[in-house]
Amino acid sequence: MGPAVSSFNDRNWRNLLMDMEAQQVIPVLGSELLVLGEEPGQPTLYQHLAKELVSRLSLEEGRLPEGYGLLEATNLFFQDPRNRADDLYYETRGILTERSWPAPEPLRQLAAITHFDLFVSTTFDSLLEQAVNEVRFSGAARTQAIAYAEKRQVEDIPAESGSARPTIFQLFGKLDATGDYGITEEKILEFTHRLQSRDLRPQNLFDALQAKSLLVLGCGFPGWLTRFLLRAAKGEQFLLQGSRGVIVDRSTRQDPEFALFLERRQTVIYSQGDAVQFVAELHRRWMEKFGPTSAAAASPQPAAEQPAEDFKPDSVFLSYASEDRQYALQVKQAFDQTGVDVWFDQSALESGDDYKLKIEKNIEDCSYFVPLISRNTATMEKRFFRREWSKAIDEAEAYPPEYPFIQPILLDDTPLDSPGIPRQFRERHVRKLEALPELIEDAKKRIRERRLQRRPA
Question: How far apart are CA 100 and CA 325, in angstroms?
Answer without folding.
Answer: 10
